[in-house]
Amino acid sequence: MFTPSPKPPSCPPKAPLAERPLLDVEKANELMRLFEVLASDTRLRLLHAIVLLDEPCMSEIADAVGMKIQAVSNQLRRMVDMGILATKRQGNFVHYRIVDNCITKLIYHGLCLNEETQARSRRRAGAMPSQRHSGGAAS
């Protein structure tokens, strides 16, 4: 019987961003590579499915996102290679888990930011004065 691994460790305490030195080029490039991997609607959906399904095997992930197993396999392999995911073999199945809870938090905060930005845009659009023009000629 499959037993899930312990939950990923939470992010270790770090200095607040405003207290850290300015990113040097090397650190900025490392961060950019991580964001490039995450900047894929497919990979974000796969990561979210892994969170929702709690260490699923590949076929469970493929079913959840409605993709072919080979396409899911290619994306999961890239995230394993980047150290974002880890695998555990259980009989004939390989189960996937997110290595560090920082990834889960990053996706959560990204969703939060997106929802709040959209809400602000809707509020601004609703608060804009009407731009109706009267049928008369301009003076």
Task: Give an overview of the whole structure.
By secondary structure, the chain is mainly α. The protein has one domain: Arc Repressor Mutant, subunit A (Orthogonal Bundle). The protein is 54% helix and 9% strand. It has five helices and two strands. The protein has helices at residues 25-38, 41-53, 58-65, 69-81, 101-127, and strands spanning 85-90, 93-98. The protein has a two-stranded antiparallel ribbon. A hairpin with a 2-residue loop joins strand 1 (85-90) and strand 2. The longest helix is centred in the last third of the chain and has 27 residues, at 101-127. It is globular. 11% of the residues are buried.
Q: For the report, how would you describe the main beta sheet?
A: 2 strands, antiparallel
Find the CATH topology.
Arc Repressor Mutant, subunit A
Number of helices: 5
Q: What series of H and E elements makes up the topology?
A: HHHHEEH
Strand order in the largest sheet: 1-2
Count of the separate structural domains:
1
* Approximate shape: globular
Question: Strand portion, in percent?
Answer: 5-15%
CATH architecture: Orthogonal Bundle
Q: List how many beta strands DSSP finds.
A: 2
Tell me the distance between the termini.
Answer: 82 Å
Helix share bin: 40-55%
Could you give me the name of the CATH homologous superfamily?
A: Winged helix-like DNA-binding domain superfamily/Winged helix DNA-binding domain
The mean pLDDT is 87
SSE diagram, text form:
Elements: H1 25-38, H2 41-53, H3 58-65, H4 69-81, E1 85-90, E2 93-98, H5 101-127
Antiparallel strand pairs: 1-2
Helix pairs in contact: 2-3, 3-4
